[in-house]
Amino acid sequence: MGSNQSLDIKNKEFMLVGGLLVVVAGLMAFFPTLDDSGTTDWISIPLVGFPIVVSCILLAFASQESRDRKEIIAVPIRLFTLCAYLVPRAISTALFFDWLILVDWDLMYNEYALEKEYLWIESIGASWHVGMDGLSFPMVWLTTFLVPVTIIMTWEEKDGATYHPLLLMMGGALIGVFVALDLFLFYVFWELTLIPMFFLILKWGGKDRRYAAQKFFIYTFCASVIMLLGLITLYFLQPESTGSGYGTVTGRTCDMTVLFSNANAKNMGDSVFLGKDMQNILFAMLMLGFLVKLPAVPFHTWLPDAHVQAPTGGSMLLAGVMLKMGAYGMLRIPIAILPDALVFYQDIIMAIGLISLVWGAVVCLGQTNLKRMVAYSSVSHMGVILLGIASMQPIGYAAALFMMFAHGIISPMLFAVCGAFKHHYHSMEIGSMRGMAKWSPFLAVYMMFAWMASLGLPLLAGFVAEFMVLIAYWPEYGWWILLPGFVLAITAGYYLWSMQRTIFEGGDEGHPPESLNGETPPDITLPENIGMIILAIFTVIFGIFPFIALGMMDDWTVALFEGVFNRGGI
Amino acid sequence: MIGQLHSSRVYSTEGVSEMDNESVEVFSTEFWQAFAPEMVLVIGLALVFIVPNLGNSKFRIPLTKVQVPWFLGGRRFKITGSPAIPGILATATLFTALGMMIIETIDGDMASTTVTSGDIVLLQIDNFSRFFEIIFLAAVLLASMASLDRIPAHTFSGKKSLDEMYDNRRQADFYILMLTTALGMSTVALAQDLFVLFIGLELASLATYVLVGFHKESKSGAEAGVKYFIVGSVASGIGLYGLSLLYLEFGSLQLTTLAANWDDGSILGTIALGLVLVGFGFKVSAAPFHFAAPDAYAGANSPVAGVLATASKAMGMIGLIRVLLVVALPDSQTDGSAVWLYTLATLSVVTMTWGNLAALGSTNPKRMLAYSSVAHAGYMMAALTAVGAWKWGEVDAPADYAEAIVAAVLFHLCVLVAFKLGAFLVLGLLEMEGGASRLSALSGLARRDPLIGTAMFIFMLALAGVPPLAGFMSKFLVVAGIVSASVGELSTNGSVSFSDIHWIWWLALAMFLNSAISVFYYLRIGVVMFLDTPEEGRRKPLPHGASIRMAIWICLVATIILGLSGDTLIDMCYRAAESLNLA
What we know:
The complex is a heterodimer. By secondary structure, chain A is mainly α. In chain A, strands 1-2 form a two-stranded antiparallel sheet. In chain A, strand 1 (113-121) and strand 2 (126-132) form a beta hairpin. Chain A has one domain (3-565). Chain A is built from 23 helices and two strands. Helices cover 70% and strands 3% of the residues of chain A. By secondary structure, chain B is mostly helical. Chain B has a three-stranded mixed β-sheet with strand order 1-4-5. Chain B has a two-stranded antiparallel sheet with strand order 2-3. In chain B, helix 6 packs antiparallel against helix 7.
């Protein structure tokens, strides 16, 4: 915990923290009201710019210190990181409860709350255009919820002076992806999230971190450039125009809202935006980028490597939010503007979803590494999202959204348990130990809870989503429903099996892993306990009262179906 | 904005804009005024010759005892004789000339000035040539700033070592060659006659041949110099032969005459075009003329290699643009035979793929950067292909599409100076403490000097094209240009079929797939810097080198700023492309 070191704060650290606080206060006071119209911009600076800028400052400071000094300043830096991220945390919560301003989340399709636009690169028509709706706000809230929990969970991570600022940067960049309403801005943040995650894996990862970090970066980058080519082609297929927001050189605009309304206006009755042929090609290109990020079989191979090697905090954010970027992107761009292609590819998406679901679950059965098993279970759960999308039912879309949200709370807990396991038992092998309940009752309880939540126990968040997806699945695909139903049973199988072996077997004495060299295994530490209990509480809350988040998602789904799919043609 | 840019354009039949065009006779008063920045370069060059030789020599008037102070030769004055003087003079000269040019161009209302000698148009100052001169001077300026530390001038306090004496004796030679390179390159940018262009090209090339082999006591330096010289002069010879054939066919080497008389059916003209392209292809290091480049870059000291990879490449690109886009394009959109379209498309794909695959396998960071610069040449050639596809009437699009593509190429050339030269300068900093020819020389760099390590990583990400850096912006613009040309005016009809899109769209795909491959080797540098432990004997902090670090910071800031907001530069590029009068 380094509590004895925290007393050792000398003048320099004091000045560091104090100076940063001044900077932050200045930023906060000045920037949110940058707009001419007098309305406050609650997104650009507080949610996106602030975490990224603060983390850059902290990293620049920390990098100049010697190794010993780094140990000392790690304490104020991680405290400050946590405090700094509580700003977006507070703002996102306040926006939900209408404490700051009254926000109407029941929006029409292509309407956004808290929308702001500033001109940026005028020659290509890119602008800093941000806003939130029922699709993005739950994801933003989830990010602001997870990052502080992750910071608390990994409070004792080594080299904290650079580790925690990187988490902070992740937090800003991820929100940037969700709030961007400009293709260029979206892509910038989409790639920006790779960089802190690359370093988290590279510097704090396991034995094969070098391979895992590069594979993660290259794999997702390759897919993203294909997606970018799709976006650029889409950009040039829009009609040329002049005026504010249109590029002075290219004559097109990167603005997503303009793109959406153009596409929506063309997708009426029998007319099809860009024609069916072009829609199919573009849809495939865009979906490739998003499917790799999701990830869906057969593009999932980067995920187990990245997860197993990543540090706990990296895994938590990777599974909790980064995977959702894929699903978010799908719903935001290709599905909303290329609905005819969606109909064309419906069965293929269903098949990919089903294969991910089955493949992930079957592979899980064969895993001996706890974290690898959990990683494959993520692949499996992401398949559920695809099933919801392929169902073409409003309830299926709402379910997909809720699955994103629920998995965003449950999977970090799974990885938190794995991390704690690794931290205290120095091993990830399921078969290496028995009777964990004896030494680590807390860890055993959390593990059981997380496992149950992930396999879809009623009254926990995961159940709601899975149940809704199955409801949506039935009218479209009929008795095929037995397959996902059966897979959910397999899921229960591998979870219960791994739990039975690690927690309960082994009699009264148990069987501690050999990696401990005969020492008595400890229970989890206080920060880990705090982090996990927060996650557990929210899993229960959203399991019992799903409508807190689901209401907003329902509204968005209804708006999407009214705005995009309901045109007599489909 | 677009309307405003276009309203000032009037097309003449000869392809030269008559608007705002002033024609001056060579060596007239107006000539000197127009060429003030270049004159600064010439004066600076003369000063570097003269100042170190100032001394107390006297000249005795014959048959008398009157001695007139003559100042050249004799015992050198202490201040002017200091070995640090040439470097400072050269840097100051380049800085002044660069500043004058930027002030002249940046607001965009520059009139173009043509220099004639009788009927012959020799040089033309316009946005295009000034833009390239800015690229050249910026690259040479950064390289000479870095060289102030890379080849330091020593003040002897006590024992002299052999290396120190070598360094001191070389000061004047080195900076004379640097300034000559800049002057030659400027001539290439200004030339309106292929022969003048060739003279400038050779002036710059001869200087760079010597600069590559400047460290003659090191084996690799000498080898690189000789190799680069031999291959380079063969390429120049072939190019010159091409020029002679062009002259035979058209009776002139004037760009305007050639452009007006160019005939796609001419066999002699096509052969000549091919031969000329070999000469310029060597300069941009396009496959299959790139073989000398990796050796030359690896053997030269890093700032010089950086100049080769940026300014020298831009110089070759001027040649390609002048010959392909100004001369060898038909005068109007016709369905004529696309003479060089398929050749260039194939070459560009081969070049980028070859460069990237070879870079994957090279463990010497300088060779890796050399191959990556081959790949970048491929990207730019793909963009030129797109212009060709537009001009041969295969794509139905207005002229500003082609100008946007050329502007993207210019933007790419300009930002390359920021991050490619920056990467070479970081290697230069490593060379100061003993070599950067192995990947392991970089290991642990981020731990030894976090800021330099981060800067290098940012340069690598920019080369790979990761947003929001300048490298992404340039790649985005190039791909956007190609895609816009391939899509053309399709967007006006509601429904588009994929088969309507022109095949150059696949070049964009090839570019992106290639930049995905390139991430492998750029990331490897990052991994080595951040993860590996430093080599034995390289555990201490990096050498200080104030001015090389300053140059690196300038590159870093430019890489980030031009990525976040490149509007001013894009406008400059667009104006430069406009003054080519492609339509």
